[in-house]
Specification:
Blueprint lengths: L3 H15 L8 E5 L4 E4 L7 E7 L6 H15 L6 E7 L7 H10 L7 E5 L2 H10 L4 E3 L3 E2 L5 E2 L2 E3 L2 E5 L5 E6 L5 H10 L1
Helix pairs in contact: 2-5
Length: about 190
């Protein structure tokens, strides 16, 4: 029993050392209001609950957003937590489209930021966060309108107030209680 605390301290130090440090990274992105956002700098001092979505996603992305909305409603007293959704699909996910998505899920702009941007900048941010997204071939509907889907990493990432990735979860399967516990202990 006397070795439990030292073991915990050693494991904590090792895990902190393995965390992805984003403090030297800077990505210029655009939020749902059309404003430029320097990520992750804009969220310094906040715990960031981040996920990766696209608004035309038929299944996983709405599930993740709904789960994060549940988590947000349970964390109302924690004003140092901010939720960020980063799109895989800058071609279709314009600021206006992201704003409609936020309205659909009733995401408060004071707690939620939805990000898009130039494809190259988004690709670099996604790679830095170890997120993969692969666009399917483009098809056309009956009216000739193009459409496609994106296979992507299913993840929720927790970033601490010093811009370090501290936890990752499978987004569509994350237990809200487990996520809340990780946020509160971060």
């Amino acid at each position: 029993m006397r070795y439990v605390l030292p073991l915990f301290v050693v494991l904590s130090v090792l895990l902190m050392g393995c965390a992805t440090d984003l403090s030297d990274d800077q990505f210029t992105l655009i939020d749902q209001d059309g404003s430029e956002v320097q990520f992750p700098e804009a969220f310094e001092g906040k715990k960031v609950v981040m996920s990766f979505v696209y608004t035309n996603c038929p299944d996983i992305c709405p599930m993740i957003t709904a789960r994060l909305k549940q988590v947000e409603s349970r964390l109302n007293a924690m004003d140092d937590v901010h939720f960020v959704l980063l799109t895989f699909d800058p071609e279709r996910d314009t600021p206006e489209v992201l704003a409609r998505y936020a309205d659909t899920f009733n995401l408060s702009p004071s707690r939620w930021t939805l990000l898009t941007g130039e494809e190259e900048e988004l690709t670099q941010a996604l790679q830095r966060l170890d997120i993969e997204a692969v666009r399917s071939f483009t098809r056309h509907d009956e009216d000739g309108n193009p459409y496609y889907f994106i296979d992507h990493t299913d993840r929720v990432t927790l970033i601490d107030s010093q811009r370090r990735v501290r936890h990752t979860f499978t987004g569509s399967k994350v237990d809200p209680e487990e996520l809340i516990d990780a946020i509160q202990t971060m």
